[in-house]
Input
Amino acid sequence: MGSVNRSKTLVVCCPDCDTRMRVDAATGKVLSHEAAKSDAPKQDFDRLLAGLDASKSRADDVFRQELEALEDRDRLMEEKFREALRRAEDEDDGKPPVRPWDLD
Output
């Protein structure tokens, strides 16, 4: 029988930033990392600051949305629990549930 080479490597390229990584196929560990070469023109300080402000604004919006979702979480969990309890009562036929060892 021939031996199987299990130490193959995969080259993964990020579609967003064009970074390339070599990954060991057997373990999934990153062997090497090559950052994408930037051909973009250098931006001036004002543009960088405007980009930073836009990023901060997006982060604030995401934080606000998550905070609102967290505040509403208790009510939603209570509704889900009551719905699950109602379904369990509707589906109850009076028999105990099947135990896994009874299936053998």
